[in-house]
Amino acid sequence: MMKQKIYFICPDTKTPIGGIKQLYRQVDILNRNNFNAVILHKKRHFRHKWFENTTRLEYNLPLFLLIRQGLRTGKTSFLKSIFTKITLGIQRFIAPKLDENAIFVFPEIFSLGFLKIKKDIRKVIFNQNCYYSFLYNSIEKLPHEKQYTDQNILATITVSEDSKNYLSFAVPNTTVYRIRIGIDQSKFHYHPQKKKQIAFMPRKMKTEIVQILNILNYRNSLHDWSLVSIDNKTEQEVAQIMRESHIFLSFNYFEGFGLPPVEAMACGCIVIGFTGRAGKEYFNPDFSYPIPDGDIIGFVHKIEEVLALYEMTPATFFEKQIKASQSILKEYSLENEKQDIITVWNRILNLRKSNTIQSGQHAVATTDSPSI
Asked: Could you tell me which CATH class the domain 5-182+333-359 is placed in?
């Protein structure tokens, strides 16, 4: 008998996005532990290459065309509608068949898209940022259908306590599981040979970043410290910069988890900055410095305070770095991530079998199921 197949639907973007790496990682972990999981991409031969992987991949353009239809909120012209239907029909004919008895895992950014997809397929939402869950339509035009109340959603998986609490409150009577994200210690680890270097990522909160850096410049606060912007780097390059840096500035903004500060802590960086709400669970004041959202002056004060600590009490500074790395790598280990994923998916599959038996359907997936 074939094991229950699990499709993880993944965007074909070339931009390095941490959530995509987590989709690939979850598929790898499942396959290494006797599950049957695969990443599903739109374009044939596409693979994310900004991080190392040999993840199992399949491709299905028709499914992504349906998702795109579900994500559209405006009106579509008659000719465009006809063209889309013709394209979809052709692609359905030539595309590889998908197993309809499988479980389809949608990232939260695509959750509205499955309203256009066949209703009776089993779904799981992998929600890596709860604050993206309801960012669709406008105040004047809320959707009639609520995708999170689809009766065929088996569960929602998320990556922080903050997200779990948010979704459990927002969608009552839903099943929400939380998994811990694991940090690869072979890349992100403490290294004592560091530069007088402050790292940050400029992708979010650019207005706040510009203000903070300009104020530091006007106050001549940095002296012989250098600033390093981490942007469009491979995973290996990111890890190297973090290992070489003493300090990391966090510009988390409404995060599902907020991975960069955690990776920086694992590398022994003193992290200063915004928690993005989810980061409250790992911004331990024993070795990091959370700043209230929007407090620009408070952020600059704290940077200056930490720089003074380095100069005046270096032993305390280094002790905090080591404590940060040890604490993070213990809580967010690859082993904890693996165990969480296995436990959650065993529960989901047991629930799937239970529901299937109750509805009188066969629980075993087949290879000749019709295409979606």
From this structure: alpha beta
- The answer to whether residue 8 scores a pLDDT higher than 90 is yes
Q: What is the mean pLDDT of the chain?
A: 86
**Residue 236 clears pLDDT 90, i.e. is over it:** yes
Same fold, 5-182+333-359 and 197-331: yes
What residue spans define the domains of the chain?
Answer: 5-182+333-359, 197-331
pLDDT digits (tens, 9 = 90+) for 129-157: 999 888 765 555 555 667 777 788 999 99
Please state, in angstroms and rounded to a whole number, the distance separating the CA atoms of residues 235 and 242. 11
Q: Which CATH superfamily is domain 197-331 in?
A: Glycogen Phosphorylase B; (3.40.50.2000)
